[in-house]
Automatic annotation (TrEMBL):
Signal peptide: none annotated. It comes from hydrothermal vent metagenome. One of its GO terms (molecular function) is glycosyltransferase activity. The keyword Transferase applies. Residues 84-217 form the Glycosyltransferase subfamily 4-like N-terminal domain. This is Glycosyltransferase. Keywords: Transferase. Residues 222-374 form the Glycosyl transferase family domain.
Amino acid sequence: MQRTLDTHADTPIADCRPRIALAHDWLCGYRGGEAVLERIANLVQEIGKPDRLSTMFDDGRPLAPTIDSLEHQVSPLRYFPARARRWLLPLYPAAVGSLSRSLARRHRREPIDLLISTSSAAIKGMRAPAGVPHLCYCHAPARYIWSIRDEYAQGRSLHARLRGTGLAAISGWYRNWDRATAAHVTAFLANSAHTAREIERCFGREAAVVHPPVRTEYFTPDASTHREDFWLFVSALEPYKRTDLAIVAAGLADVPIKVVGSGSIADDLRQEFASPGVEFLGRVADETLRDLYRRARLLVFPQIEDFGITAVEAQACGCPVLARRAGGALDSVIDGTTGAFFEDDSPEAVAEAAAQCPDNPAACRANAERFSERAFDDRMRAHIATMLNARA
């Protein structure tokens, strides 16, 4: 049989996939925001051709293969130590403006079809090149400006007092900038109904809700593990996380508590609550955390979170959640079925609600599966397609 030659074999084929740029506030560690960025970056590789990733700070540490493989465009704030980023808030608008201009110059050489930002600080203020839509996944309007400024300034240290004074001085100016640059966003996505309401309050914009991805395939129940009589608290140890409330409430309920996490007030908490019933574990490996979720009587969740991934991780392992009736917990916890709510931030209210916390591992697991990585991917894929189709 005579073989037919492909006369076009040496002809270059144009890559017609959409080119998508990404933006993220900073690359200074892997937490919930970076998990969302990683999933979006994976989707971008699936759907189109990734352009570079714009960010205000990058401390150079590896985060995740997909994120690390992208070209990073870092703002002029790269000349400052990334650990000092909280003190550089007055420079954020200039940094975001610089990144916008850099993206516009690159767009003239290599046009992009979409900008996707993931923001809890300032990066949502980036201006996409003319005619290019900007889809923003917003974890929250900057909380230290819009909602819990006083909590960020709590503490006895000079650092806390200086932070409070600085935020009070610039908050009005920064709010004006933050509100004005919301106009640079074509469409907002929020990580919870609570955040969607905050976006409307702060920016006057509507937002569709896409809950963040939770690793429900990793965080699973184990029938061979039995529940033990202790409470679990998992969070960064910062003033607004209300670790103190969780510890005092556990004491009132006469139940031991294990505290997982690190943060700026870790040493203060260890000194104030040094007792046999309080165990500070620091940061732990995922395997250890999963084991704690499987063994704990409940996860106590006293803070108001925009979403709160730990509440879903716990339920995925069959652990009920004791939460404040506010914030993202209203999306993730079913009162009386997968956990219990308390109404105010008093230790007595927390301890009283704990007595009503159900023990229903199957219901917890079923509820958690609504927030799986696959569910996130499906919703994000649909929103990205909508933006690209509108441009076409």
